[in-house]
Amino acid sequence: MPKYLALFRGINVSGHNLVKMAALRHFFEGLNFTEVKSYIQSGNIIFFSEISDTKQLEAHLEIEFNRSFGFKSPVLILNPEKVALALNTHPFLNDKREEDSSIYYIFLKESPATEKRDELDSANYEFERCFLYEDYLYLECFKGMGKAKLNTNLIEKKLGVSATARNERTMQKLHDLLKD
Question: In order of start, what are the domains of the chain with their CATH numbers?
Answer without folding.
Answer: 3-78 (3.30.70.1280), 82-179 (3.30.70.1260)
